[in-house]
Amino acid sequence: MARVAVIIPTFDHGILLRLSVASARAQTVGDVEIHIVGDGVPAPARAVIDELVAEHGVRFHDHPKSPRTGEPYRHALIATLDVDHVAYLSDDDLWLPDHLEAMLPLLERNDLVAAVSAWVQGDGQVKPMLHDLGRPFYRELIARGDNHMPLSTAAHRVDAYRRLPHGWRTTPPGTATDLYMWQQWLGSTPRMASASTVTVLRFPAKLRATWTLEQRYDEQRRWAEALATGEGRARLHAACFAHARTTYLARDLMVRRLEAALEGAVSPRDRAR
Fold it and tell me: Model-level pTM?
């Protein structure tokens, strides 16, 4: 039995799958199986997937186009899996090689965990999206609709998923599909945690609305080549730290003060109840 199933939902990103799948195959941990979940995949993208299936043993689950992003297809797949954990990877994102290595220890004592991602801007700058699911402030952000947990950062235990009231389901219009899912977890388990270092690179399509797939592929290929070396990963982490040191320091101080105020508002007698 594999320890981890990687689920990669896809529609029409075609050649970008070569890079996302390669980053999943390059993980430093073994016992990983990769599942591509198709949501109305058109012919050009299907040709790429056929190559990945033939050359790398990736499993393809083909489905007609759904109303949103094929959420029920993910649910049906998880029901059939014989694994301990599921991790998600968007078809236009990249994992660093140690992504699952960072996730698995957290999953030993938590039901839902998240990595730290860095957004790659159109000009090449990187901006980390820091959060901590272990702290009430960040869980409240998700409850209110402020999602700091993109799909590619998430992993969960399969046994915990099967205790959810619904699992993946078609998301109402106007709500992000991953956010809708994480909000369901909030009411189902307190066992959540976040990693502390960046292991996911995101390349938001909204920042590349005028780019061709070939342009996006060239950009991600350059990043993938850089991240294949220790020096490249060190430069990424240094850039993320430099940004976080100035941007998130004030926010973290604010969060600590809010949590301290909340703690002080509860009497010792009430906390003991």
Answer: 0.89
